[in-house]
Design brief:
Layout (H helix, E strand, L loop, with lengths): L4 H16 L4 E3 L5 E3 L4 H5 L4 H39 L4 H13 L6 H4 L7 H36 L5
Antiparallel strand pairs: 1-2
Helix pairs in contact: 3-4, 3-6
């Protein structure tokens, strides 16, 4: 929804426009809306087709794009942890923390966090940084390829939605 705020607004405005002619309202001195007539019937049995189609498209995009990106990130993150543990022997949680800190600092362990891993040599940290970069780059490239293929499939499934 956040990617296509314009379409979200269009769907909401389409409904609002269809009922606004039947609502008698005023604004009070504080700027609050006062409805002067009965409007419940306008909202009981309305045509939600545009909302359902929009929501379907949002869910489809989430499945085809967001979940694939998240899975790609998790695969790269897990591969980075395994690669880290091949370079140095450490508990899973500690390796996970190290990889997160490296990712948060764009591929390097910050000087402020260096003391947390004082048992590691500079060479080991450099090798771990390179391994993390390699694993995450590989997963990003795979995710981008999947995204392009998913977009192509969606476009061929229903040309009217493109």
């Amino acid at each position: 929804m956040l990617r296509d705020r314009h379409r979200y607004d269009e769907v909401l405005e389409g409904f609002s426009h269809s009922v606004s002619h039947f609502i008698d309202y005023d604004l009070n001195q504080e700027g609050s809306l006062l409805v002067n007539n009965e409007t419940g019937h306008l909202y009981r049995f309305w045509d939600a087709t545009a909302f359902a189609e929009y929501l379907y498209d949002c869910v489809a995009e989430t499945i085809h794009r967001d979940l694939k990106q998240e899975i790609g990130f998790l695969k790269g993150f897990d591969a980075a942890i395994r690669a880290t543990m091949e370079i140095v022997d450490m508990p899973d949680r500690r390796a996970s923390m190290l990889v997160r800190l490296i990712l948060q600092n764009k591929g390097r362990l910050s000087q402020a966090k260096r003391a947390t891993f004082s048992e590691l040599s500079d060479e080991e940290l450099s090798a771990i940084g390179a391994a993390v970069a390699s694993c995450t780059q590989a997963s990003e490239e795979l995710t981008l390829t999947d995204e392009i293929e998913a977009d192509d499939r969606v476009m061929h499934e229903d040309p009217a939605r493109s």
